[in-house]
């Protein structure tokens, strides 16, 4: 679509230059260029602003037995009866991989023993009797 509009604009400017005069074609090209640059600026601002406010959507859901839903990084956690984490677990730096901060979506866990995380999952013990030993 954009290519067709650009081609039509180029043909129109050539016709103005040939049929009218070069001075008028110059002024017309200046006006068309200004309008095109404003349209590009609007598109860039809309693209940088996000996708229509969906960035504000923060939904985290957990359902069912042992379901756990987490937004962000999960480091050194024990989930389940008899699970344990010992020692020092090194996780991502504050901010992590950026996955949690960049997200606008939904984190969800369903069903028996389900787990859902958004971000880095490092050094965790999941399930009954599981164990993680850090350094």
Describe the structure.
With 135 residues, the chain is α/β, with parallel strands linked by helices. The protein has two domains: 2-49; 55-133, no CATH class. The protein contains three helices and ten strands. The strands form five sheets. It has a two-stranded parallel ribbon. Helix 1 packs antiparallel against helix 2. The longest helix has 28 residues, at 22-49. It is rod-shaped and about 85 Å long. The N and C termini lie far apart (58 Å).
List keywords for this structure.
10 strands; 22% strand; rod-shaped; single chain; 135 residues; two-stranded parallel ribbon; alpha/beta; 2 domains
Question: What does the secondary structure layout of this molecule look like, with pairings?
Answer:
Layout: H1 2-19, H2 22-49, E1 59-62, E2 68-71, E3 74-75, E4 78-79, E5 84-86, H3 99-102, E6 106-109, E7 115-118, E8 121-122, E9 125-126, E10 131-133
Parallel strand pairs: 1-6, 2-7, 3-8, 4-9, 5-10
């Amino acid at each position: 679509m954009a290519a067709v509009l650009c081609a039509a604009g180029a043909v129109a400017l050539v016709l103005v230059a040939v049929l009218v005069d070069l001075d008028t074609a110059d002024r017309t090209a200046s006006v068309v260029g200004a309008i095109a640059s404003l349209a590009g600026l609007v598109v860039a601002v809309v693209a940088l602003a996000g996708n229509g406010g969906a960035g504000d959507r923060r939904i985290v859901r957990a359902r069912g037995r042992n379901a756990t839903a987490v937004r962000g990084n999960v480091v050194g956690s024990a989930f389940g009866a008899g699970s344990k984490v010992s020692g020092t677990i090194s996780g991502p730096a504050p901010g992590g991989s950026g996955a949690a901060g960049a997200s606008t979506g939904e984190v969800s866990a369903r069903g028996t023993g389900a787990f859902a995380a958004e971000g880095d999952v490092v050094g965790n013990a999941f399930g009954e009797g599981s164990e993680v030993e850090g350094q």
